[in-house]
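Q: I'm writing up a methods section and want to include an example of the input and output format. Could you take the sequence below and give the corresponding predicted structure tokens, formatted cleanly so I can copy it straight into the document?
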Amino acid sequence: MENGKNLKEKLAEAKVMSDQANRAKSDFLTNMSHEIRTPMNGILGLAGLLQKERLSETQSEWVTGIRESAGSLMVLLDNLLDLEKIEEGHFELMNEPFLLKELLTGVLRLMRPLAAVKGLELKDDGLTELPNLTVRGDSFRLRQIILNLLMNAVRFTEKGQVGFEVRVKPATDSSKGLSHFEFTIRDTGRGIPLADRERIFSRSYQIQNPARPQEGNGLGLAIVKELLNRMGGVITLDSSEGRGSSFQVSLALAVLAEQTGISELDKPVAYSSGKRSFIRGTVLIVEDNRINRLVATETLKTYGIREVIGVSSGYEAIAYAEHQDLRLVLVDLGLPDMDGFSVLARMREKSSKRKLRFVAMTAYVDDKHRQACEQAGFDDFWQNL
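A: Here is the clean output for your methods example:
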């Protein structure tokens, strides 16, 4: 009996130590992701702004290469973090409204120059005709799925084109108000051998290619399937060796409304959640990182917003807001003097009679931080500036 008791105690102690180790690993990955993501956001943002300037063909190719490399690293970070959460059982989906067409247009805008630098045409079918629907679901994970598939298509296609198609099937009485969307990514690449078509969705599995043995990391399709399983969607593959591949994603989303009648006087600001805000007036950016503050300022100006003020601390923001008529405040959550949540609370107190929107700026992407922003009263979050 005594031996049995000692064994139970040892097992309990081992479980506690194992849980502590898992939490430490998860916290380490999250913190490292933040530390890497912050400068990478600056690189991506500045490269995106530079790409809008008048560049020579060679310069444009260099900038595209910077964006492709940085973007690939960001996608890899997202995939690793989600796989870690799934393994630990901490994975949660968000369920929030977002503009579907805006989200898809943003992904294609990011991918077009990456395809062009390889001499590929990126065609889209159905996006122009897609209504401006507000749908409910996890916009971040849907973007991650489409981006992974498009990046794979561009990576493994040497000539020809990559195609993106979106189709929507209206809700029926039996669908409980859900509309079924089909997203198809096609390419004219080398195709996938029959023997690899099932295993290609396994983690770290890579098709053997003697000419390029280190191509890809084997995580993209694995995370796509994992995410879709949890979102209630499916992915199918149709491929022929030497003739390309076609991946079709089927996903049900609740359609809330169609956006119409926006005044031309209002300036649109697109956030990483896929929402779109229309504002007039002065915008305040509260960000201690000089590069990210510059990127945010110049990005807002590309939307036609000219009255943009940048400050580097929470106390500066609070003092500034007392004497200025603001319409939108973008707040970094990791300020050195006080966190973004404290800035929000203090400024809400002083602006209770004014219609003032607050957007959290953060390099974190996990559900805990996104939910914390919503519960604190932020109107939205802006992740990738």
